[in-house]
Amino acid sequence: MVETFLGMVLNAQEQLLKVEAGNPEKLVSYGNAVLNKTEKLVSTLVTPTKTSYSLNISLNGLELQVFAVGPEASMKEIPQLSVNSTQMEIDLIQISENNKGSAAVAFMSYSNMDNMLKPSFFNTTDNDTVKTMMSTVVSATLPKTNNTRLTKPVNFTMKHIEETDPNGTLSCVYWKNTEWVVAGCYLVQTNSTHTVCSCVHLSTFALIMQTKPLAETGFQSDFHLDLLNTVLVSVGLVFLSLTLLTFAICRRHLRMNNTPRINLCISLLLAHLIFLLTQSYLNYIQPLEMLCAVLAGVLHFLFLSAFVWMLIEAVLLLISVKNLRKIRSKQKEVLGWKCLVIIGYVIPLVVVGVSVGLFPGGYGSKQCWIKMDRDFIWSFVGPVCVILAVNVIIFIGIILTLRSALAGLNSDHSHIKQTK
Question: For residue range 170-179, what is the model confidence (pLDDT) as tens digits?
Fold first, then answer.
């Protein structure tokens, strides 16, 4: 019965959002009404108990959990309630002791409440900031509990529903009649995916981020940068295509192994082409999360392939330098083109595969690239740093080997002159 009434309240909320979306005063009034009705209906779910029980309800637009304890309940740890990726820790043990051994807590998460109680209702001294809701709106109450005084602050671990802006300011807020306010709540810690808020009272809570609006010159600057990026990448694609065409035409006349250079150009050409198309149609691709993640994974693979082919080219160059004093280089015998292709593409494929296995959600940021969550960017930066470090070592080895070989050639030349 309670679920039916809750469903009616939530359906009414959806209808009101369609009709009164542009009326802030009506949204605030209806939002308060939904909160009050929901809390009253949820309180009817609490029944007296001697031990303890937990009740979970999931509806379209609302998830709630009720946890109640009685005089005979044996709790040694503070219970943690969880709804819709948000956790709450409340000292129900002490609250129950203040209420003759009985107490109950209700924890609710509203998926659409941010459309009524908008982040723009956040009361701040700086009204020029752009305010973004960073979490679902949650409510916590102590239904059918006489003494509702909290002995300890309540902690909320909120999952971010949007990517955080490094230059933004996060605030833990609660709803007070007509606006979001900070009083009594403070931010404990945060990372790229979650924020822990602590509050000294129970109410309706949310996480809001404030960012500075981009000035008109900023938009112009972004436009010019995007235009410059498009032009430069396009020019790069033209020259990479010409390079591949040159290798294709002159392939029979070259005695050296050009496999690394050809595949390096192919990797860079495909990577920059996909990057250019992705950024050009980002508004259409971004809503398709799976496509965005796949494109990020392909770019990860292609850019890593380019660096691996650079490393292979450095190794082959070292072999060539070491064979300077020989009449014919053994380069082709040491590493054939089939072996090179396997090395050049399997290594980055393994890195991408391991990355996906360790963190499947690491691809598909707002720019359809690698996400910064959990330092996942190191799946790209780490191998690149290793390859660059090895390349530096090989470069030093080439210089030393070349110096020794040239010194030997000069010595042989002097010896031949003396013999004549």
Answer: 999 999 988 9
Task: Specify whether 249 is located in the same domain as 196.
Answer: no
Q: Does residue 85 fall inside a structural domain?
A: yes
Does 206 share its domain with 304?
A: no
**Does 176 reside within a domain?**
yes
**Mean pLDDT: which of 231-235, 346-350, 399-403, 415-419 is highest?**
346-350
3-class secondary structure for the chain?
A: CHHHHHHHHHHHHHHHHHHCCCCHHHHHHHHHHHHHHHHHHHHCCCCCCCCEEEEEEEECCEEEEEEEECCCCCCCCCCEEEECCEEEECCHHHHHHCCCCCEEEEEEEECCHHHCCCHHHECCCCCCCEEEECCCEEEEECCCCCCCCCCCCEEEEEECCCCCCCCCEEEEEEEECCEEECCCEEEEEECCCEEEEEECCCCEEEEEEEECCCCHHHHHHHHHHHHHHHHHHHHHHHHHHHHHHHHHHCHHHCCCCCHHHHHHHHHHHHHHHHHHHHHHCHHHHCCCHHHHHHHHHHHHHHHHHHHHHHHHHHHHHHHHHHCCCCCCCCHHHHCCHHHHHHHHHHHHHHHHHHHHHHCHHHECCCCCCECCHHHCCHHHHHHHHHHHHHHHHHHHHHHHHHHHHHHHHHHHHHHHHHHC
| Domain extent for 308 | 224-419
Percentage of the chain beyond pLDDT 90 is 35
- Selected residue with higher pLDDT from 333 and 93: 93
What domain count does the chain have? 2
The model's pLDDT over 294-349, given as tens digits with 9 standing for 90+, comes to 999 999 999 999 999 999 999 988 888 887 656 444 444 456 778 888 999 999 99
Q: Provide the pLDDT for residue 230.
A: 84
Say yes or no: 257 and 380 in one domain.
yes
